[in-house]
Amino acid sequence: MAPSDAVEKAGIEKSTKILEKWGLKVKYGKHIYSFVGDFTAGTAEERKEDLKEMIFNPDIKAIWCASGGYAATEVLPVFDRAAIAVFKEKSKWLIGYSDICLLQNALTSFNIISVMGPTLWGLSDWDSYSQEYLRRILFGEAVEGIGAQAKWKPSILGVAEGKLVACDLETLIYSFGTKFDPIMYGGGGDIILAIEELDIDKSLLQRQIDIILNHKKTSRIKGMVVGRLVNIRELSYPKWGKKVTPQGLIKGRVAPINIPLAFCDDFGHAENGWLHFGPERFISLVNGVKVRLTVEEKLCKLEYLESLCQKD
């Protein structure tokens, strides 16, 4: 179903063929191909209707969001007590990234696991490793987390453990102060935070990181992994912008709290843009699962420390 942006039929059908090869049966949301201008996949009420159908239909085992966008806030009211009870009682995945992280934050805040990974519309454009990795998660097969062979860049050395909170940076900030704040809520305990971002100024990136580090529950964050940072420029302060890199900016803000920090170019928005981006890698991340982050000069890895299987 499409809780946010409108999607093109060709992209959905191409990715659906992959799922059918996996042996999955696909049910589309009623309004998946609806359009409100060029903005959303139907009205807010139509998208809510589709999301409720997917949540409360006992035959649906995974809600695979068609695309990200800018309108997932309109369907957040669907995550009421009844909907959360279904996720807690049944085996049901929610899959996607970008704007869909708002919905995953809602689940994380209730200590429910979800998958930050390719949306359905773009699944066919990610490389075969990305597709197979996600399939293994959904079928309950063993995965290693993000291994040492990934495109890591160590920054602040150390080892830390905690529950994984993986999120687009902008949608993480938008969740703060709401009842769906994954840093404030979600059963307590330590957190390993994984973030990624695209199309913002460095000055905004600095402000966003500062907001995270001034959160009331920042002490829960014991380590950070930063995925792809795509098109992070500086239009407002060009002289200053030329002197700082996004990675250096983040390290400078995080260093005072002395937690492990590493950069990894194997998850997040594609470097080649939004449309038909070609074979890049997206290693899906399972929110709400305990992980260990190791950052050494010659070794970085993110290991799952417990089962990724949903409850029966």
Present the secondary structure layout:
Elements: H1 9-21, H2 44-56, E1 62-64, H3 81-89, E2 93-96, H4 101-109, E3 114-116, H5 128-138, E4 152-156, E5 158-168, H6 169-175, E6 191-198, H7 202-213, E7 221-230, H8 238-243, H9 246-254, E8 261-264, E9 285-287, E10 290-295, E11 300-304
Parallel strand pairs: 1-2, 2-3, 5-6, 6-7, 7-8
Antiparallel strand pairs: 3-9, 4-8, 5-10, 10-11
Helix pairs in contact: 4-6, 7-9
Could you list some keywords that capture this structure?
single chain; 312 residues; alpha/beta; Rossmann fold; Glucose Oxidase, domain 1; 2 domains; seven-stranded mixed β-sheet; four-stranded mixed β-sheet; 9 helices; 20% strand
The N- to C-terminal Cα distance equals 23 Å
Please tell me the total number of domains.
2
Task: Please mark out the parts with pLDDT under 50 across 5 or more consecutive residues, or reply none.
Answer: none
State the secondary-structure class: alpha/beta
Classify the beta-strand content into a percent band.
Answer: 15-25%
| Major beta sheet summary | 7 strands, mixed
Which bin fits the share of residues in helices? 25-40%
Which strand order do you get reading across the main beta sheet?
Answer: 4-8-7-6-5-10-11
CATH topology of the largest domain: Glucose Oxidase, domain 1
